[in-house]
Specification:
This protein is an alpha+beta fold. The chain has helices at about 15-30, 35-45, 50-60, 65-75, 95-110, 155-165, and strands spanning about 85-90, 125-130, 140-145, 145-150. About 45% of the residues lie in helices and about 10% in strands. The structure holds FE2/S2 (inorganic) cluster (FES). FE2/S2 (inorganic) cluster binds near residues 92, 131 and 135.
């Protein structure tokens, strides 16, 4: 299958060094400042822009590798802006044991993307999440923050088609 997607675009859609600097400065004095800074940058830019890594390292007096390590460790941080819709598909135990693994594999194959990827039309990003507290109705997901339960191929296909339209 032809890959429809670039997993990590080489450019970000929006970058404002001055604004990133303000965000970093505003949080740098906090205890455990790295995570608040990264969350605030992602809230602003839709991802943690690569260009911000040296700025964060300087502000926190740590190496770029350490900053990169934190970003890589936490699944919540994106390296590229998401699509118009974000599906967070649960990969934890209950969902796995109720067919979630195969369901996710089929969805990703149909979309031609991998975890964290965005469709070429930028309609949908699919990200992993680890238990949404919806285990009783697994497999489960969040679409743009709204819960989806008892997922199957048909539900996900409808969701993907609607994501392309809206
Ligand atoms: S394991 Fe998926 S919602 Fe709990």
């Amino acid at each position: 299958m032809t890959a429809l997607v670039s997993q990590i675009p080489s450019t970000i859609e929006r970058w404002d060094a001055a604004l990133a600097g303000e965000i970093i400065t505003a949080h740098a004095g906090m205890e455990g400042a790295a995570l608040p800074i990264l969350h605030a940058l992602q809230d602003e830019f839709g991802c943690v822009p690569k260009q911000s890594e040296p700025m964060i390292a300087d502000a926190l007096n740590v190496s770029r590798a350490e900053v990169h390590g934190v970003i890589s460790f936490y699944h919540d941080f994106r390296r590229a802006p998401p699509g118009h819709h974000v599906l967070k598909l649960c990969r934890a135990e209950s969902c796995q044991s109720n067919g979630g693994v195969e369901l996710a594999d089929r969805l990703l194959a149909r979309l031609g993307i991998d975890w964290g990827g965005t469709t070429a039309d930028r309609s949908l990003t699919v990200e992993p999440v680890y238990c949404l507290g919806l285990c009783a109705c697994s497999p489960a997901a969040l679409l743009d923050g709204e819960p989806m339960a008892r997922l199957n191929d048909a539900k996900l296909e409808t969701m993907a088609a609607e994501a392309r339209r809206t």
